[in-house]
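To: structure subgroup
Subject: Chain for Friday's discussion

All,

I'm putting the inputs and outputs inline so they're searchable in the archive.
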Amino acid sequence: MPIAGPFYFLKGSEGNVSLPAMKEKKSNPAVYWSKRLGLDLTMPEGNSMEPTYNHRDNEIDPEVVHNRILNLEKESDESHVVACPYCDEHLSIESPFDVANVCPYCDSEFEYEP
């Protein structure tokens, strides 16, 4: 079954990779996917209508990124509702829980261990 869009495109020196849309609408997609994929992604012109993200790693292999995305889809759909330790807003944190999380309300980064 194909992944439902809309898609964000990761442009690099070797090609493009599509990233599935996020469930949290208030989150910053570039920050979210940077954390999830271990990349440094930016979105040119923060309010750009074109959903394109640039990465700064010229050595990156789009096929490796594509495989990371596929592996993310196979991960558990487990999620926990937690309070941000900085602003106390309640957030839904999805697995894997070993990555840093960014609060969409106060932009603070924190780690969560179940």
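Points worth raising on Friday:
Residues 3 and 73 are 9 Å apart (CA to CA).
Residues 1-74 form one domain.

D.
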